[in-house]
Design goal:
Keywords: Transferase. This protein is α+β, with helices and mostly antiparallel strands.
């Protein structure tokens, strides 16, 4: 598994095959890409299978204004938005691997000073909560109002 900053030329063809049938608690890669084009603080990130090059997942890393939406004003925070794994590649460990490698990726590819990753997960999305906990995230806030219901804010610190 490899994380890569999304590039239209390299990944556009792969995006056409991306399957995400349930967007109840997430956004589509296409929407993430379009929003990122208008906001320089949003980094669209492709999760690739390093053996066959398939696009297996996607998310946005949002710095500055992103974490501030949830009360985090420190410069070393980043917010994960729209995290998804392609329907054909779920339950194969890609999400866990992505979060295990995220700080290394941020250091090498983005060269940002990020020591904390936060994300908002719907309180009804138990499967995602378990997956994030398995990847080293822990709950820091509950009962946060979101567009699609109550959210929990989860955090992962560097070296945890």
């Amino acid at each position: 598994m490899t994380l890569s900053l999304y590039h239209e030329v390299e990944h556009g063809r792969l995006l056409q095959a991306y399957s995400l049938n349930d967007t109840t608690h997430t956004d589509t890669p296409q929407n993430i890409i379009e929003t990122s084009k208008r906001d320089r603080d949003r980094y669209p990130i492709a999760i690739l299978d390093h053996e066959d090059g398939n696009l297996v997942g996607f998310f946005c890393l949002h710095v500055n204004a992103g974490p501030k939406e949830y009360g985090y004003h420190q410069q070393d925070y980043a917010l994960v938005r729209g995290f998804s794994i392609d329907d054909n590649f779920r339950n194969q460990g890609y999400g866990s691997h992505a979060f295990n490698d995220i700080f290394t990726f941020i250091d090498s590819a983005l060269q940002l000073e990020v020591n904390h990753i936060i994300l908002a997960v719907n309180e009804k999305n138990i499967v995602a909560q378990k997956a994030y906990k398995h990847s080293g995230f822990y709950v820091v806030k509950r009962d946060v109002e979101g567009q699609k219901g109550k959210l929990m804010i989860m955090e992962k610190k560097r070296d945890e």
